[in-house]
């Protein structure tokens, strides 16, 4: 398991985190230089514009890009003197980034005939209202307008969410605050007013406030109930949408090289696909007119190392750039994740949230996961820790020396495979057994005969 033995992470996880999202105007310092996050105001890129963006990422950054869990693009390896030329190149390509509070929507909004309502007009109006309000809001305030469809956003957290549900006549929009139903529902115009009222209440709590900071008596309430929807489809795969066809692929663990993506975009363009969209779940969506063939593009994507099948276990793991792309990382996160997939298949049934982090900051997954494997120290030596039901910066329940980490992962997977009951999911099994026994399995691994080559 590769590492930099002379490098340590300084500061607590909270000290490492910023209270704002990195943007083109205000990039964030990371272990491999400055990082800028980009979400196009239009919700998509033309293929020509995306090619220009890739050229700029190569010219002014390291050529490494991420797609985040929320479907944003991150450009890595920038330098202070290269930020302005990058911004100029992006503007020259006709790409207008979102500024201020982003209002998110499903990536297929406006294209998907199965959606209850097109989110775009309502999202644009709400974003304009917030921008014109002059309110001082937390930069990370999350707002979603979700019209439904194959790739709806029920699984994406938000401070404020408007969700469309079919009703007689026009769609009925429901207001959720902090993930909880308020019971308020009405027309789009009515719910924009309701959402703006909540935005104002959050702003009144201070410029860093989020929905969780609202007193209970400040939440609106009514009696309307939102019907639970089916789980959203994976963004990976082919979608036939009547007038359009979409091919979704995902860079492994969300990270990709500009030169590899360029080959894919050029092939998409040659196949008549004209748009690139980003989707929650770290996916790239190529969009074109109905009837276009996408099988050759999918084969090329697979050859270039992209995930092209919705059941690929790599989609179940959040992993940061690791040592391959970030000097702050002390482990090769991709090697750890790949070993987890290959040698602990009992954990890969899709029931667990899995996270691999190169340091305590936990960039790839700020929220808690069922299991997190994180760079740690074991008896004063570099090691691998396992956190149960927490974040990368939480205390591990067990640690192993780095050279023994692969064997510990293998032993944990074997133990779950032997312990799991018929019909039981991996998540239910680990919950039944508890952190103490998970720690014992991880830290008590026996290494004889276990192959850990490649880490």
Number of strands: 21
What's the Cα radius of gyration? 22 Å
Number of helices: 10
Provide the β-strand percentage band. 15-25%
Helix-strand category: alpha+beta
The percent range for helix content is 25-40%
- Span of the ends, CA to CA: 4 Å
Low-confidence stretches: 1-18, 445-455
Mean pLDDT: 90
Morphology call: globular
For the sheet with most strands, the description reads:
6 strands, antiparallel
What brief labels describe this structure?
single chain; 455 residues; alpha+beta; 6-stranded antiparallel β-sheet; 5-stranded antiparallel β-sheet; 10 helices; 21 strands; globular; disordered C terminus
What does this structure look like?
With 455 residues, the chain is α+β, with helices and mostly antiparallel strands. It is built from 10 helices and 21 strands. Strands 3, 11, 12, 14, 15 and 16 form a 6-stranded antiparallel β-sheet that branches. Strands 1-2-5-4-13 form a 5-stranded antiparallel β-sheet. Strands 6-7-8-9-10 form a 5-stranded mixed β-sheet, covered by helices on one side. The termini are close together. The N terminus and C terminus are likely disordered.
